[in-house]
Amino acid sequence: MNALQLAYLGDSVLEVYVRKHLLQQQIGSIEQLHKRTVHFTNAKSQAKFLEELMLELDDDEIATVKKGRNSQASQGKKSATMIEYKYATGLETLLGQLYLDDITRLETVVQRYIEIGSNHGHTIKR
C-alpha cells in the first residue's frame, strides 16, 4: 500500500480505538461522544501527539511517519495548518502500517495517544 492508503486505514483504526476508550468513560450522549472523538482525533491533536511520540519510535517507524508526512496529500479542512495536517498524515500512515504488521505495537502506540490526549484535557471529567 502507498502512504495515503495506509493513512486512510490508520485514520479509521485510531477513531475506533478512541471511540472505544470514550465509550468506556461513560461520557453520555452520542453528541458528546462525537464531539470528544472529533476533538481527540483532529489533525492538531494528532500532530501534537506525534511530536511527543517521535522519541519513542524506532527507525522503521520514523521512516513510515516520514513516508506519510511527505506524501502528496492535499489539505482537507482549514482547521489545521499544512504542517499539522502533514504530521497527522504521518501518524495515520504509521497506525495503518502497524495495524497490518504489528497489532501489539499498534495498541501500545494508541494507548500512549489516549494517555497523552487525556493529559491534554481531551476527555470529559464526570
Low-confidence stretches: 122-126
Kindly report the average pLDDT value: 88
Bin the helical content: over 70%
* DSSP summary, beta strand count: 0
- Give the overall shape, derived from the CA principal axes: globular
CATH topology: Ribonuclease iii, N-terminal Endonuclease Domain, Chain A
Identify the CATH class.
Answer: Mainly Alpha
> What is the CA–CA distance across the termini?
42 Å
Percent of residues in beta strands?
Answer: under 5%
Q: What is the string of SSEs from the N terminus onward?
A: HHHHHH
At the fourth level of CATH, the homologous superfamily is Ribonuclease III domain
Main beta-sheet strand count, sense and barrel state: none
Number of helices: 6
